[in-house]
Design a protein that fits this description.
mainly alpha, 250 residues
């Protein structure tokens, strides 16, 4: 006797159907978007600081922002190219995730009251707040150091302002924009489209500038030697004088 087919129950969907569609997938996208809302401004600030170091051949006093600080030579140039690649990959991803999450928020009004929405937003707000305060402290320290160095011969004012104050000011402005966007999300207002446009313009501009700078640096360092070879060319014979005044070389 043939058995009667049983209709599938509500839990008979596959894992992909259950987890990668609807609110669960929205929570994943929302979390990724909030992570990128903090990471992308950090990459932009690091790229600007690295470009300034490469342009003016000066080292930033905040090496955590300036990857050209590490390694030196072609290693820092290749690291700058890697930073450019990160911007090219992550800025468009942030734009796509931002557009998708904004569209889903309007369809699922109840999502903003869920813990899956609030935890990433408040976490991103806390992270950007700490970074903004840190940049503000850096700028204030430069101003106080300026007062302390008054009357000191050869005071390093140029280094203080080019290596600390300027990168801190740039970071304060860019992370201030990110903080403003996330703070408005907490208050229930979405300015994600404006934030995405600003980050896209900044990211594209600095990525192009940093790539051109890296290319010029590699070609300049490769005039006399292979820029990817850590071995330096032989400087040639070195001349010496002995105690009798006779010249010799080795």
């Amino acid at each position: 006797m043939a058995s009667t087919p049983v209709a599938p129950g509500p839990n008979s969907k596959s894992f992909i159907d259950r987890e990668l569609h609807g609110a669960s997938f929205l929570a994943l996208e929302h979390t990724a978007h909030m992570i990128l809302a903090v990471a992308v401004p950090g990459l932009i600030v690091s790229a600007i600081s690295t470009a300034l170091t490469m342009w003016f051949s000066t080292s930033s006093s905040m090496p955590m922002l300036d990857i050209a600080y590490y390694g030196g030579g072609w290693m820092s140039t290749m690291s700058a190219i890697g930073l450019t690649a990160a911007l090219v990959a992550l800025v468009p991803l942030m734009l796509v995730l931002g557009r998708r999450t904004r569209a889903e928020w309007h369809k699922r009004a109840a999502f903003i009251s869920r813990l899956a929405y609030k935890v990433p937003v408040y976490g991103a707000l806390a992270a950007t707040t700490v970074v903004v305060i840190w940049f503000k402290i850096q700028m204030l320290s430069v101003l106080l150091a300026t007062l302390a160095f008054i009357g000191v011969p050869n005071a390093p004012f140029a280094t203080l302002y080019s290596g600390v104050f300027l990168p801190a000011l740039i970071g304060y402005v860019i992370f201030g924009i990110a903080w403003w966007y996330i703070f408005k999300l907490v208050k229930g207002t979405d300015y994600g489209k404006i934030f995405s446009i600003i980050m896209a313009i900044l990211g594209a501009g600095i990525a192009v500038a940093l790539f051109i700078t890296s290319t010029v640096s590699l070609h300049g360092s490769g005039k006399n030697s292979n820029p990817l070879s850590p071995t330096q060319p032989d400087p040639g014979p070195i001349y010496y004088k002995d105690e009798h005044g006779t010249d010799y070389y080795r």
